Amino acid sequence: MNYEQGKLVLITGATGHVGHAVLLRALSAEYQVRITLREPSKAALIRDSLPGRDHLHRLSFVTVCDFTQRGAFDEALQDVSYIIHIASPLQRPAYTDYNRDIIAPTVQGTSNLLHSALNHPTVQRIVITSSTSAILDINPTNNLPLTPSDHPISPTHRHPNYGPDFITSSEHAYIAAKTAALNLASAFRAQNSPHFDIIHLLPGYVFGPKGLATTPREAISGSNVFGIGLVMRKGSWRDWVVEAMSCHVDDIAEAHVNALDPRVAGNQDFILSVPFRPEEVKSIIRKRFPEEGDMVKEGIFAGGNEYYRWFHVSYDVSSSEEMLLGRKLRGIEEQIVDSAKQVLALVKN
């Protein structure tokens, strides 16, 4: 039983991969949940995605059209005890104005949320979704890490903000935005001594079922393209260089909600990321889904003949496993199997 049950949690980004999983977990933990939406019409999509209607009375919505506007969250934070801030633009080739499309929503959105929370004494804790890319030192010429692979990176590590010369692609803009937002929140905490705690969760690529996906293509949009997408995508990866470190969506969702527990000390950060090798994905599919041979040979899982370049990073995940989950993080096999089950269900339906 969650003894914080009934307290109001504001969640941003609930229509996304991680956000929807966090929403379901928070409702299951019997929190009252308020969702921010840029488009009010998406409220019906969220309601219809819930397993049954038992939780509807604890779910509400508030419209926040533009996170970059000063005071954007003032109304949304009324009577809120906890905030889970997940919303953040992903790297997409279609983005051309990196500041407008990626950096400003991430950095200014975080700043506006934190400053609004200062004016709401009911707020006790803010959990922010960051990324391992925010603490990794990336060489802009080859996208490889400058930090030695045998040097474990702890959750307290920080990387200086990147300059404009680094931001030459949506991928680099995402890294720069996550880095700047993490540094901003750390500086905010030091300068303002707020009445609330701030906790950051830093996952690698998040793999696993996407709660709002209705097609296989939707299931592999976002970070899943680097997981189950390896056996579904048939094009060339060209010059892609990927940090082959991942986290199961259920682990990151559980960690977000568990981080609200006041028994977890505030003002600390947690890394959730385990290593994998891209060539493992096809082997996992063949081993775990032998009855789907046709799907592997010529169907939905017939890709996977080419891989992106990749590297591993040594992260200290002990605090996540010990304090937030009470167990080991799920490995790549479970991440891929659960992703594949969703894809197969979508194909067959």
Task: Describe it.
Belongs to the NAD(P)-dependent epimerase/dehydratase family. Dihydroflavonol-4-reductase subfamily. This is PKS/NRPS-like protein biosynthetic cluster. It comes from Aspergillus niger. By secondary structure, this protein is an alpha/beta fold. The chain has one domain: Rossmann fold. Helix content is 33%, strand content 15%. The chain is built from 10 helices and 12 strands. Strands 3-2-1-4-5-6-10 form a 7-stranded parallel beta sheet, sandwiched between helices. The chain has a 3-stranded mixed beta sheet with strand order 7-9-11. Strand 4, helix 3 and strand 5 (125-129) form a beta-alpha-beta unit. Helix 1 (17-28) crosses helix 6. The longest helix is centred in the middle third of the chain and has 23 residues, at 170-192. The mean pLDDT is 93.
Topology pattern, helix = H, strand = E: EHEHEEHEHEEHEEHEEHHEHH
Give the CATH H-level superfamily.
NAD(P)-binding Rossmann-like Domain
- Helix/strand-derived category reads alpha/beta
List segments where confidence is low: pLDDT < 50 over at least 5 consecutive residues.
Answer: none
**Helicity level:** 25-40%
Count of helical segments? 10
CATH class: Alpha Beta
Instruction: Give the mean pLDDT.
Output: 93
Fraction in beta strands: 5-15%
Query: Which outline best applies?
Result: globular
Largest sheet: 7 strands, parallel
Q: Number of folding domains?
A: 1
